[in-house]
Amino acid sequence: MTLDLRIRDHQFEPGERITVARSPNVGGEIAPSCLVLHYTAGRSLDSSVAHFMRPAAQASAHLVVGRDGRVVQLVPFNRSAWHAGRSTWKGLQGLNQHSIGIELDNAGRLVRSGAGYRAWFQEVYPAADVVTARHRNEQADACWHAFTDVQVETALDIAVALVRAYPLGEILGHDDIAPGRKCDPGPAFPMESFRAAVFGRRDDAPQRHVVTATLLNLRAGPGRQHAVLARLAQGLQVDLLEVQDGWGRVTLGGLTSGGWVSLDYIRAIE
Ligand SMILES: [Zn+2]
Q1: Which among 16, 29, 103, 170 is annotated as catalytic?
Q2: What is the rounded radius of gyration, in angstroms, for the C-alpha atoms of the chain?
């Protein structure tokens, strides 16, 4: 159930599982160079989104990913969201100015309570939803709310789309950039395999697409202001190499150096 993610004006296009809203908790323009993952330590996707929409929260993220794979975008990718707080990474200070932040709906750290496991907001979760593991910044095992498979897969689809669209060199946890102060997304999140999967898929062979318009303009650059190099017939297959603001750079069977087409008129072939 791979998500079809298209970025236009630094936002995902809304779809069945994707909603776009505008959090008031947003800063100035940024050129993101890394991706930072978090858990919400919250009760639900909706409660966390409601929190990030309140000015008094003074907090936000670019995206919130639900346990059912729904995604809410709250801040455009070229504006700073308020997710990292005091943070440093390889000489960078204040990662809000340098990163795209993704919050994963998850209750966070839990404590054993009778037959279940209790969150800080008093909800009790069954053992099946709990991972016992030691955080790499801590000395003892602890209990953590598990992420769902569809949630991790959705985050992976998002991360792949983002590293294709932006020069994101690293995927970090909040616990990497604010160690000691923050422990999310914590040991229940498969960070190592996630990083490997994202950077592996980014480098995948180009994806084959088919032209859906009757005649599709192949242009010299990503936009209607660029010269038309050729017109591609409906049904023609192209390889998508790169995506930028609703446009894709494609080649045709290795015959030409390629050009740019509107993503509205090509469709991926599974
Ligand atoms: Zn965090």
Answers
A1: 103
A2: 20
Rounded Cα gap, residues 39 and 152, in angstroms: 12
Phi, psi of 195, deg, nearest 5: -60, -45
Centre of ligand 1 to C-alpha 109, Å, is 12
Task: Calculate the dihedral angle through the C-alpha atoms of 191, 197, 202, 203, rounding to the nearest 10 degrees.
Answer: 130
Å from CA of 5 to ligand 1 middle: 24
pTM exceeds cut of 0.85: no
Q: What is the 3-state secondary structure (H, E, C) of 210-269?
A: EECCCEEEEECCCCCCCCEEEEEECCCEEEEEEEECCEEEEECCCCCCCEEEEHHHEEEC
Closest CA to 112 of 130, 139, 99: 130
- List the chain residues with pLDDT less than 70: 1-2, 202-205, 253-257, 270
CA distance 230 to 157: 32
Q: Is 103 a catalytic residue?
A: yes
Residue 204, pLDDT score: 62
Structural contact between residues 234 and 212, judged by C-beta atoms closer than 8 angstroms? yes
CB–CB of 187/145 below 8 Å?
Answer: no
Domains of the chain are 7-202 (3.40.80.10), 207-268 (2.30.30.40)
Q: Which helix (H) or strand (E) holds 52?
A: helix 45-53
Q: What is the reported pLDDT for 1?
A: 56
pLDDT (tens digit, 9 = 90+) per residue, 128-158?
Answer: 999 999 999 999 999 999 999 999 999 999 9
